[in-house]
């Protein structure tokens, strides 16, 4: 009887749906997981509260965070180049932070039940998490754009030198 190898791959099944450990330990993975969990908690709180008019925003943010979590975990962003992923993620984080801040203020100030207050408090926490995510994503975007703009003048200069057209 053969003993299984220590480094053998786990059999395919439900384990193949889980994201890799490297992604879960990364900063982006932890932020996306925190965003999805907080959005789900806020969604549940709004369902149980009298402020149920606000439940659509956390639901959409939960689904978007979950989609991006699995998209980044499965490296879909490397396979599908038709979308500029960091910019999409940045815009999602900015809009989520603003929306969560606005509905949290409304939930805390307008409604008196405990579930609305809890949703508001979790909404403020989610605002901070989304703000941290869009700050980090913004710094990545700036770094990328600086690299792109520093290469562009050199390319233009080399293209101008290579052209033999005389405009005089």
UniProtKB/TrEMBL annotation:
It is found in: Membrane. Keywords: Membrane, Transmembrane, Transmembrane helix. It comes from the Eukaryota. The chain crosses the membrane at residues 31-49, 55-73, 93-112, 118-138. It is a multi-pass membrane protein. Residues 148-168 are annotated as: Disordered. It holds the Pfam family MARVEL. GO terms for cellular component: membrane. PANTHER family: CKLF-LIKE MARVEL TRANSMEMBRANE DOMAIN-CONTAINING PROTEIN 3 (PTHR22776:SF3), MARVEL-CONTAINING POTENTIAL LIPID RAFT-ASSOCIATED PROTEIN (PTHR22776). This is MARVEL domain-containing protein. It comes from Pavo cristatus.
């Amino acid at each position: 009887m053969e003993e299984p190898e220590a480094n053998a791959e786990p059999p395919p099944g439900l384990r193949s749906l889980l994201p890799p450990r490297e992604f879960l330990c990364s900063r982006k993975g932890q932020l996306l997981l925190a965003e999805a969990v907080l959005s789900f908690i806020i969604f549940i709180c709004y369902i149980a509260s009298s402020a149920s008019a606000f439940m659509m925003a956390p639901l959409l943010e939960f689904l978007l965070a979950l989609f991006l979590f699995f998209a980044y975990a499965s490296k879909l962003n490397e396979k599908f180049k038709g979308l500029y992923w960091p910019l999409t993620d940045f815009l999602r984080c900015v809009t989520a932070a603003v929306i969560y801040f606005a509905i949290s203020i409304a939930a805390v100030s307008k409604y008196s039940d405990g579930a609305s207050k809890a949703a508001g408090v979790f909404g403020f926490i989610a605002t901070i998490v989304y703000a941290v995510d869009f700050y980090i994503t913004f710094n990545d975007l700036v770094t990328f754009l600086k690299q792109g703009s520093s290469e562009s003048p050199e390319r233009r200069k080399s293209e101008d030198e290579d052209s033999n057209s005389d405009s005089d």
